Amino acid sequence: MGQLGKSILRSDSFQNAASAVLERWLRFTWNTNSEVPESDDPNELLAGHWPVICALWHGQQLLSPYTAPRGLPVTSLVSRSADAEINARVIERTGHGVIRGSGGRDPRAAAKKGAVGATKAICDALRQGSSVVMVADISKGEPRKAGEGIVRIARISGRPVVPIAVATSRYYVIEKSWDRTTINLPFGKRCLKIGEPIYVATREDEPAMRLRVTEELNRVTQEAYRAVEARS
Predict the structure, then answer these.
(1) What is the 3 state secondary structure string of the chain?
(2) pTM of the predicted protein model
(3) What is the pLDDT of residues 142-198, one digit of tens each?
(4) What is the pLDDT of residues 138-153, one digit of tens each?
């Protein structure tokens, strides 16, 4: 793609228009997928734990803004990259807050992307009563393996990580994407599965809690897909 094409794709007017179309499509997809009985109720399972850090896998997060209970504030962490800006604007159109800034495996790159500022913003949001949505695995890193950041924020903030997964019976997987991004499709069944809240008490607990987040997130993801496939 030429420089002109990149400029158009990253222009404010294009991103506003694209995010409006995409949000309407995602809302339509959510509304036209009927909920299966196996779907979990966040108000019931997380009573007494709010606010929480909602953990998702990369490539499985498109419908996540529509899973939030009504009336509860939610803020999502989104990369500061130009390519992620449309996603950030889609989330804002759902009425949720957005924190721009996330890091990768290289500490210097992470600093450039605002990881330090994002950590403070996340902790501030949690302290003010807003739950925060984060993808647990690191962009371009090993998919389906929780990174250090999410458990570190849980320890610093004192709030629990809650693994969540939403699946639809009709979907398309982009096989060539590093995270096998899943595009949810309308006119099927949907299921939300929620894992046990995971608290991180000390720095020494972080490696074990990373493993637990990984295992729980994989478990609820598998359960969500099994539930919709059984009903389709």
Answers:
(1) CCHHHHHHHCCHHHHHHHHHHHHHHHHHHHHCCEECCCCCCHHHHCCCCCCCEEEECCCCCCCHHHHCCCCCCEEEEECCCHHHHHHHHHHHHCCCEEEECCCCCCHHHHHHCCHHHHHHHHHHHHHCCCEEEEECECCCCCCCCECHHHHHHHHHHCCCEEEEEEEECCEEECCCCCCCCEEECCCCEEEEEECCCECCCCHHHHHHHHHHHHHHHHHHHHHHHHHHHHHC
(2) 0.90
(3) 889 999 999 999 999 999 999 999 999 999 999 988 888 999 999 999 999 999 999
(4) 877 788 999 999 999 9
